[in-house]
């Protein structure tokens, strides 16, 4: 029997994982961090262990929805294309099919992930010191919190910047996620097919873990330059408004810090990308198998 499209969404919701987002955000958009180790020590010294989880409550509360939609959109778009092109939704997809499905997933992910990322970064960056003096900041000491929590952050952004403010940096995120998801789902699919022995109906958990981890490291590593721009645009506005847009952010960042700024956090991104994505894909595949098994029992 045909696997229902809803199972793709439900299995995706089981893949939520905690991301070590604070380190790469601080490295990319913060000031005064020489390298990853220095960032870790500085955060711990100034904010203790709690500092590493700052701004994570809202992403954790919404990651199940984000994951389910992203994986569901990719899988169902792929199935729809296969149905239209080959007359069989379970037909093996061509490379062009995977590219289109990945791009669609990337576009949709920005609609959901943009505001979530913005709030996370604003909460993480609000304790950062600002080098440039500003008359409106003289009453604030270093580390003065602009937001009391996720709800206050959302209300403040909506009040000061309107609904468009919730999607600050969305263009950069789009430029990150569309190619990023192509380099996420396509390497995973190809590697799974390459690792899995002929005759096997589905990849083994070890194959899924390896393929998912490698795909995550590739995707996050290559996405780092635009991730830097996105993080800086989203962090901009906590106290100051420094950048006018993507081009201005790239220009200012390059002139003040050189090309090396665009690979800030690449080590953290690649290292976290492997276990995070391995667990994500493994959870997705295992939950999808479980759902398919339940369907086979209820729909013989």
Automatic annotation (TrEMBL):
Its main location: mitochondrion. Pfam families: Mito_carr. Solcar repeats lie at residues 3-80, 93-194, 203-290. GO terms for molecular function: transmembrane transporter activity. SUPFAM superfamilies: Mitochondrial carrier. The keyword Membrane applies. GO terms for cellular component: mitochondrial inner membrane. Belongs to the mitochondrial carrier (TC 2.A.29) family. The gene is SLC25A48. Keywords: Membrane, Mitochondrion, Mitochondrion inner membrane, Repeat, Transmembrane, Transmembrane helix, Transport. It is a multi-pass membrane protein. It is found in: Mitochondrion inner membrane. This is Solute carrier family 25 member 48. InterPro entries: MCP_dom_sf (IPR023395), MCP_transmembrane (IPR018108), Mitochondrial_Carrier (IPR050567).
């Amino acid at each position: 029997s045909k696997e229902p499209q809803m199972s793709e969404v439900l299995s995706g919701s089981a893949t939520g994982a905690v991301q070590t987002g604070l380190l790469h955000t601080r490295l990319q958009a913060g000031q005064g961090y020489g390298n990853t180790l220095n960032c870790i020590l500085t955060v711990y010294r100034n904010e203790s262990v709690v500092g590493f989880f700052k701004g994570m409550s809202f992403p954790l509360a919404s990651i199940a929805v984000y994951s389910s939609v992203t994986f569901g959109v990719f899988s169902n778009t792929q199935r729809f294309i296969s149905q239209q092109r080959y007359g069989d939704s379970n037909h093996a997809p061509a490379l062009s099919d995977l590219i289109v499905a990945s791009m669609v997933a990337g576009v949709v992910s920005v609609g959901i992930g943009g505001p979530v990322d913005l709030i996370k970064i604003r909460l993480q960056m609000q304790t950062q010191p600002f080098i440039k003096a500003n008359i409106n900041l003289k009453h604030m000491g270093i580390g003065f919190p602009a937001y009391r929590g996720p709800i206050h952050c959302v209300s403040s952004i909506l009040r000061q910047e309107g609904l468009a403010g919730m999607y600050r940096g969305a263009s950069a995120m789009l430029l990150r996620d569309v190619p990023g998801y192509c380099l996420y789902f396509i390497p995973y699919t190809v590697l799974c097919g390459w690792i899995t022995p002929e005759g096997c109906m589905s990849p083994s958990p070890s194959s899924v873990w390896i393929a998912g981890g490698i795909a995550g490291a590739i995707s996050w590593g290559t996405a780092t330059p635009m991730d830097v721009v996105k993080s800086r645009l989203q962090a901009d506005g906590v106290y100051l408004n420094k950048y006018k847009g993507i081009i201005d952010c790239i220009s200012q960042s390059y002139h003040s810090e050189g090309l090396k700024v665009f690979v800030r956090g690449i080590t953290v991104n690649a290292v976290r990308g492997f276990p995070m994505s391995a667990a994500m894909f493994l959870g997705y595949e295992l939950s999808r198998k479980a759902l398919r098994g339940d369907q086979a029992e209820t729909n013989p």
